[in-house]
Structure formats: C-alpha cells, structure tokens
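Structure (tokenized):
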C-alpha cells in the first residue's frame, strides 16, 4: 500500500491549487510517465479546464522547487509536466483502469482529504492577519507617542541644563571681594 504520508509529500501548491505532477503519479501507479501522458491525451475531454489538469511552466517548477535541473545528458525532463488537481487525479482512475491505479487513487484521495482537514483545522488566517495589522498599528501609534514624550522630556531637560550652565557662568563672572582672613592674625606694623 502506498503510504499516505509519501503521497502528501508529493502534493505541491502551484497556481494556488494543490496538485500532483505526472511523473509522481506515474511512479505511484507503476507506469511510465509517457504512458500516463498518452492515456491523458487520448481522453483529454475528461480533463477539460484547469480545475482538472494543466501544464506547468518552467517558472512554476522553479517556484515550487521541484524542477531543479541537473547537469548532464538525460538528467532532466524534456517536456513540462502535467499538474493534476484533486479532480484530475479522481478522473485518472477512469482513464487508468488497472487494480494498482484504483488502489493508489484511493490513497491519493485520502491524502487530499487529510490535507484539506489539516488546512481546515488551522485558525482563520485572514482574520489573524487583520488582527495582527491592527495591533501593529496601535503599537506603532503608542511608540510614536512615547518618542514624542521622550523628545519633550529631552527638550525640557536640555533647557534646564542650559539654564544651569548660564547660572554657573554668571556666578563665575561676579567680581570677588577681598575676603578677610579667617583665624587669629597679628596686625602688621606699618
């Protein structure tokens, strides 16, 4: 039995849809990729629309990090793969009629359902993002208020220090009177 976890690792998100690529499906079904593609092309009316299947672009392959090309002859695919959505994989069971294909198709459907359940169990991300944005804006306003208050305090402190410096400077310019000596002194005779 093909493991559901193995299948889940072969499900990618391309163009906002969860898909499986033709070469992964062919390996799971135990057929050549060319044979799978040939069967799909013979029954192309079953896969009409991008909600069933579409051909992946090179940018799509690079974006989902599947299509890293290796150096050397014959190390990468010559043709761009087909991406099958959940509906497309279900439709494949009507095209590929072997017992293996039917058994693998059941496991693939279970994997898609498991992923859908996991996604449904996640909290509402759009609401969470909106709340985070609101909190961020409030924090930003609070920080701006704190910085403004800090600048006001700094300005007040700067003005007070300036007044202290001016007072000290004024005290230093006051003429000094000769002081009478402290203690017992014998007057000098003139």
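Design, position by position:
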């Amino acid at each position: 039995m093909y493991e559901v976890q193995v299948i889940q690792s072969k499900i990618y998100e391309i163009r906002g849809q969860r898909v499986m690529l033709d070469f992964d499906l062919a390996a799971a079904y135990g057929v050549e990729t060319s044979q799978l593609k040939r069967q799909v092309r013979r029954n192309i009316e079953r896969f009409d629309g991008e909600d069933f299947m579409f051909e992946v672009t090179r940018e799509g392959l690079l974006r989902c990090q599947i299509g890293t090309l290796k150096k050397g002859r014959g190390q990468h695919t010559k043709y761009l793969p087909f991406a099958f959505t959940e509906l497309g994989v279900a439709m494949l069971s009507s095209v590929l009629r072997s017992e293996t294909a039917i058994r693998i198709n059941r496991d693939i459907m279970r994997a898609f359902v498991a992923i859908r359940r996991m996604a449904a169990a996640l909290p509402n991300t759009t609401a969470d993002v909106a709340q985070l944005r609101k909190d961020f804006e409030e924090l930003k306003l609070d920080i701006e208020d704190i910085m403004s208050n800090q600048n006001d305090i700094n300005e007040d402190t700067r003005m007070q220090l300036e007044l202290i410096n001016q007072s000290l400077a004024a005290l230093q310019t006051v003429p000094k009177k000769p002081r009478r000596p402290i203690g017992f002194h014998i007057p000098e005779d003139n």
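Reviewer-requested clarification: Residues 125-172 form the longest helix (48 residues). Residues 125 and 171 are 67 Å apart (CA to CA).
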